């Protein structure tokens, strides 16, 4: 499971979900894998405002990944030299030239963390009730035992 | 707006118009239906331009192509008159272009010589370009629509080819060629159609809460979406012994399907989870009465009922103290199976509706299949929810039963709460800049091998899980 999914997951126990401490889940004993893929700017742009930034920083730091900036990046931060492109456009007198967008380092970093890095084996632990959800072959198991439903 | 002819396929009739409307909405294109009948494969629509026509039809599963309509009639005499009256201003534009003519009969055909005769009757168009059966720049289609077993066509259309549909995806994703399938896999045509109805597209996030072998997420990924899914049955995701194909050996799983179609980069992964005990974030994060969702679309084919074993987590009867204690004692053991109980189909549909109302972004769509009747043949009511507006109901009839594809759109909250912007959210920002360009960071972004090595060096390597037994 790619790390982006952790941005959407809480503890599955109903009484726990309402507690702020049940989000994000904390990876433990995690074996990571990277599956490389082409950077997807439209997706990053779309998903950016939906990210819980502080929580993603927590997860990245708990996994021992490079630390992320404290302030969430903006959509403008995702592309390189937007102003430059505008200038060329003016110079050539083009009306609506389709400018090839160049992803910024920020975009590449986000892509690497959220969409290329995944948890292959390990556990996800609830910060509220300490229940552990196992991850096996990249698939997390959120089925609750009888006494917790 | 000019008129276009959409050549539809004559299957899943009640889905065809809904699909075109969905694709028009997705492309931001105005479409007006001038002529549409369930029993005809020819629809006449108004669209702003060739480009708009292409936008709408090129993804369509239930059409074959779109043509600029030059004329129509019930006899050839009428057709020619119509072409002369409505399209003569266009003729000169194609005067020198390499071209060809195609005669396309629905439920009827003409002999070789008759075809030639018909084509020659269009000579007044004055095309002087070379005739090319291959690589023609322009293709002109004569469409004949026959009643069943009739000798002469009842209607005729003439049009200039604009764009092919996306129907070839049906063949590409054919279950027969798919790496991994299960007994409940939805056929490729309907899975792709579902993805179209839900407006799957590049940049979007899609989720299937009953993914099975993952056919819906795969279809959504085909249209460019980033996808994930879940299922209460972990075997259907991991594929262990779950394939419905005879003689299948080796590791077959959902991940493998994404690999097969080179869509791995769009697959976020899957979870084993029960829809009624979902780990997906549903709690309001910004305060206020409205939920700010994060999913652009939800597509699913829920289990239909008792025969298919609709189960949710929990026990039928309340567990007593001793039973609770036994579960607590044993749940971490290998081979522990969480208790499950039967559940009602209508209740699970309502659960999906409530989930969608919370997790979808405004304008996001839910496309969900449901049978018309339950196991006791009681007609099931179409579920409703205050935040979900009905977009379309499409019916697939079978001999003894039928099922429907319901599509909803999440509507904006009435009392628009001032949406908190992400910028104001970090009260801890003290301007302390994280060391962004340290060695470790750089190596991490260079690749995993580097990361592994570095993590080892840094002594922070996490203990690797060592493949414990399955418990689902
Ligand atoms: C009709 S199948 C979906 C098939 C899928 N569309 C495909 O093409 O492979 C329904 C799925 O729902 C799953 N299911 C049943 N009860 C569930 C529950 N309570 N929560 C989540 N999934 C459930 C079943 O395991 C089954 O895989
Ligand atoms: Zn918890």
Automatic annotation (TrEMBL), chain A:
Pfam families: Trm112p (PF03966)
InterPro entries xrefs: Trm112, Trm112-like
Top-rank lineage group of the source organism: Eukaryota
GO MF: protein heterodimerization activity
Biological process (GO), any one: tRNA methylation
Family: Belongs to the TRM112 family.
Name of the protein this chain belongs to: Trm112p-domain-containing protein
Organism: Periconia digitata
Organism phylogeny: Eukaryota, Fungi, Dikarya, Ascomycota, Pezizomycotina
From TrEMBL, chain B:
GO terms classed as biological process: methylation; tRNA processing
Entry's EC annotation: 2.1.1.214
GO (cellular component) term, any one: cytoplasm
Domain tRNA (guanine(10)-N(2))-methyltransferase TRMT11 N-terminal: start-end pairs: 3-167
SUPFAM superfamilies (UniProt xref): S-adenosyl-L-methionine-dependent methyltransferases (SSF53335)
Gene3D superfamilies cross-referenced by the UniProt entry: Vaccinia Virus protein VP39
Main location (coarse class): cytoplasm
GO molecular function: tRNA (guanine(10)-N2)-methyltransferase activity; tRNA binding
PROSITE patterns named in the record: N6_MTASE, SAM_MT_TRM11
UniProt entry keywords in alphabetical sequence: Cytoplasm, Methyltransferase, RNA-binding, S-adenosyl-L-methionine, Transferase, tRNA processing, tRNA-binding
Top-level EC class: transferase
Annotated Pfam families: Tmrp11_N (PF25904)
Family membership: Belongs to the class I-like SAM-binding methyltransferase superfamily. TRM11 methyltransferase family.
Protein name: tRNA (guanine(10)-N(2))-methyltransferase
Originating species: Periconia digitata
